[in-house]
Design brief:
The protein is α/β, with parallel strands linked by helices. 48% of the residues lie in helices and 11% in strands. Strand 6 and strand 7 form a beta hairpin. Helix 11 runs antiparallel to helix 13 and helix 11 packs across helix 15. The structure holds 5,6-dihydroxy-NADP and zinc ion (ZN). Keywords: Oxidoreductase.
Length: 388
Amino acid sequence: MLGDFTYHNPCRVHFGPNALDELPSELAEYGPKVLLTYGGGSIKRNGVYDKVITALEAAGKTVFEVPGVMSNPTADKLREGAKVARENDVDLILAVGGGSTIDYAKGVSVSAWTEGDPWEHLYLHMEEPTGKVIPVGDVLTMSGTGSEMNAGSVITNHEEGLKIGHVFGPNVIPRFAIVNPEVTFTVPDYQMRAGIYDAFNHICEQYFSGTDDNTSDYIAEGLMRSLVHASRIAVKDPTDYEARSNISWVCTWALNTLIACGKSTDWEVHMLGQAIGAVTDATHGMTLSAVSLPYYRLVMPYGVEKFARFARAVWNVDDSGKSEREVAEAGLEAMSEWMDQIGVVKSARELGLTEENIPDAVKATFILDGGYHKLTTEEVEQIFHESL
Ligand code: NZQ
Ligand code: ZN
């Protein structure tokens, strides 16, 4: 059943090997001052930086730079960028990178003109920005998060042991996104696999909730099938454009909120993964893969029907002679085998979670109520132990 909803995504996506050709026409829509943000230097090594700078110079822009955006961007880094953006009254923030750089750009966009400490107001207390929101555009270099076309921004505060994502309003969604799957060829193998799993889990988070019949779940199943198929090819040949381009497009659609329209959603795997991230600073997608199976095995009995549907629709599980519960279990088994095929982390110990820091991770976990079963604190602890 689809109830009332408004779907509005103002992001213009330019996709394909020639997507960057569209950057000049996008830049023409904004004033002269551009804040360029990027990560640890991959864009300088693969030539993307030079191409972007050439376009900015040709457009006559004055460019301010905030480089060094780390994976899992921090509250301190956010404060630094907000200061630069405000002091120079920039007209556009151009993020060139993966989810971390784009999340960061959105964070700077809402923080620059909001009074007070941005971490405290916009993340810890989840308040809305009180000042103007600076437009953001992005040149995506790694697929996974969907940040290129959504309003989410995740910031980590190591001092407080918290990693918090705020999904802002549509005015924080990037105005444009340049997605060239060829640029993702240089993404390190580990990050490529993490990005694939991240997107898969975004779809799961929106799928494993509710018992009604709605179009969003059918779209979700199609996206999962495409991702599973393409990922098996990409891990063998990372330069297979067909596979990488399908992965990139699935990643974008997995989290631009289309498949959440008119339905309830879960997001508890992300809460568990973010808690591991807060404690260990591990790669986001791998934190999700480490907790997924213990979590889904725990909640499956409360949502057998949907898990059985997942088994049939995504994994083609042969259901003859099986009970619904057995079909559901076979679906999770098929998912587990696929996780092995694409080589994602299944042990949180590999990421730095230990018996000693599990209590910190439990403390950092937000318990949500959207899935088939609301976790107790004891169950959160149990999942972390089972994930080791
Ligand atoms: O920093 P550089 O040098 O650019 O290197 C990056 C980084 O080391 C590298 N990389 C990216 N593109 C590359 C490349 N290396 C070579 N060639 C390229 N083309 O890859 C590494 C990882 O990049 P990062 O941006 O950190 O990864 P990802 O895209 O997975 O982003 C992770 C962040 O996004 C948040 C996560 O929590 C995490 O903080 N998320 C954001 C979401 C959103 N906005 O909706 C949702 C997600 O669930 C997620 O929470
Ligand atoms: Zn994610």
